[in-house]
TrEMBL record:
Start and end residues of each Peptidase S8/S53 domain: 102-399
Region (Disordered): 23-59
InterPro entries named among the record's database cross-references: Peptidase_S8/S53_dom (IPR000209), Peptidase_S8/S53_dom_sf (IPR036852), Peptidase_S8_Asp-AS (IPR023827), Peptidase_S8_His-AS (IPR022398), Peptidase_S8_Ser-AS (IPR023828), Peptidase_S8_subtilisin-like (IPR050131), Peptidase_S8_subtilisin-rel (IPR015500), T7SS_pept_S8A_mycosin (IPR023834)
GO biological process, one term: proteolysis
Protein name: Phage tail length tape-measure protein
Length: 479
């Protein structure tokens, strides 16, 4: 079987090449009185054999050559953008960096490569396209922009507003995919296949293992593969699952992936039905036991229209009107990209994920004692939950990330304190209040009787006095 391609798709509403960790119990609820139907298990990947081998790291899986020219600098005058992106203001970077800047943490960016830039600390970590480039060529521009959101550190002279969420972190670049390179990957079933762009699930799995072995504490994967849910899990998918398990559980790495955009593989409207029964799966987010999957939010707070929903979505972050490092220069910024000859704003879940990866780097630098699972849980628990059952939905997971809270909040579970258990509090309304009117009635009757008796007495007295007065007049008249 031909290896399924996975790559960075550059587009106006879909910029991802291509998870919280939502517990399986929260993803899948069996129907009342019965076992879960086979389709219900789509929300949860099948368990991996404990003895399934971790993929061995190799090199490019084909002899790749340029298919199209690499991106070039935009025509016209170069400039530096001085305004801060809305996502940076929303995330309160100025306050956040008083606690942590991500120093001492290496974040691996598995993407289209990262170009060396004056505003970025980056080292090569490997290349599955052209081995000699060691991850430091970015022919597509995607990886450099992702890395900039994580760790860009422009001069602090007030001339540039943009800065990465973890400017003190180091980027480890591994080029795993490229839409501008193509090559043939022969198999026993297809010895003469057509040329395809670089990037498969197999190389993604190897890149994850390589990043973990090179000391990455956080891995960002703005790469996704979308396929129908009614297909059985493939060996390449199991290899990716094994790689993620190895990185997260054995090497203690925080894994972050973009939730995916509507595009060629995931057509608009997929997964819009039963929240527990997706019709398409997105990988790596599907492996939500290990991966934080990130949806995109737009500036007005609504979920982005291009963000693919699913029961594996963990949290959301800004994914529109992006500003980042210019992948064609050594000292520039960019806020537009050229797609099909037209300039468009940079957006996509690809650029929401690095906000979360950078946040994980801040936490790992500030709270070194926390494990990868605790960091992931902290990000999930402190998110701004949507008004939905259980505080999550399939569009934005547990909600927009709250970096300050994720960095500084006290989490009881980290201190060994068991969470409060839910109580069965029945909402019983009090019965109707029956007022006893008898005292009021007695008082009214008594008052009325007293008033009547008083009036009667006055009448009698007045009558007697009149009668007595009239008798004296008569006597005087007779005399």
């Amino acid at each position: 079987m031909r290896a399924r391609r996975i790559g960075a798709v550059l587009g106006a509403a879909a910029i991802a090449v291509a998870l919280p960790a939502v517990p399986a119990s929260a993803q899948q609820q069996p129907p009342p009185g019965g076992r879960p139907s086979p389709v219900d298990t789509r929300a949860v990947p099948p368990p991996l054999d404990p003895n399934w081998q971790v993929p061995k790291v190799g090199g490019p899986d084909a002899a790749y050559a340029p298919k199209t020219a690499c991106i070039a600098p935009a025509s016209g005058q170069r400039f530096d953008l001085k305004n801060k992106p809305w996502g940076q203001l929303e995330m309160q970077f100025d306050e956040l960096h008083q606690f942590s800047r991500g120093e001492g943490v290496t974040v691996a960016v598995i993407d289209t490569g990262v170009r060396k830039h004056d505003y970025l600390t980056v080292r090569g970590g490997g290349d599955f396209v052209i081995a000699a480039h060691n991850g430091l060529e970015d022919c597509d521009g995607h990886g450099t922009e992702v890395a900039g959101i994580i760790a860009a550190h422009p001069p602090a002279d007030g001339q540039i507003g943009f800065v990465g969420i973890a400017p003190g972190a180091e980027i480890l670049s591994i080029r795993q995919s490229s839409a501008n390179y193509e090559g043939k990957r022969p198999t026993a079933a297809d010895p003469d296949p057509r040329a395809e762009p670089a990037g498969t699930l197999e190389t993604l799995a190897q890149a994850v293992v390589s990043a973990a072995n090179q000391g990455a504490r956080v891995i960002n994967m703005s790469v996704d593969s979308c396929r129908p849910a009614d297909l059985p899990i493939q060996p390449s998918e199991k290899n990716l699952q094994a790689a993620l398990r190895y990185a997260h559980e054995t090497m203690d790495v925080v894994l972050v992936a973009s939730a995916g955009n509507y595009g060629q593989d995931c057509e608009s409207g997929v997964n819009a039905g039963d929240p527990t029964r997706p019709d398409h799966l997105v990988l790596p987010p599907w492996f939500s036991e290990y991966v934080i999957s990130v949806a995109a939010i737009q500036a007005n707070g609504d979920p982005a229209d291009f963000s693919v929903p699913g029961p594996w979505v963990t949290v959301a972050a800004p994914g529109t009107n992006i500003i980042s490092l210019d992948p064609t220069t050594n000292d520039g910024l960019v806020n537009l990209q050229v797609v099909n000859g037209k300039s468009q704003e940079i957006q996509g879940t690809s650029f929401a994920a690095p906000y979360v990866a950078g946040l994980a780097a801040l936490i790992r630098s500030y709270r070194k004692e926390l494990s990868a699972k605790q960091v992931s849980e902290r990000i999930k628990l402190t998110a701004i939950h949507p008004a939905a059952p259980g505080g999550r939905d399939n569009r934005i997971g547990y909600g927009m990330i709250n970096p300050l809270a994720a960095l500084t909040a006290a989490i009881p579970a980290e201190k060994g304190i068991q969470p409060d258990q839910p109580l069965d509090m029945k909402a019983e309304l009090p019965g109707p209040i029956v007022k006893n009117w008898a005292p009021m009635q007695v008082a009214l009757i008594g008052s009325a009787g007293g008033l009547l008796l008083l009036l009667l007495t006055l009448f009698v007295v007045h009558t007697v006095r009149r009668n007595r007065g009239g008798g004296k007049d008569e006597l005087r008249g007779m005399a």
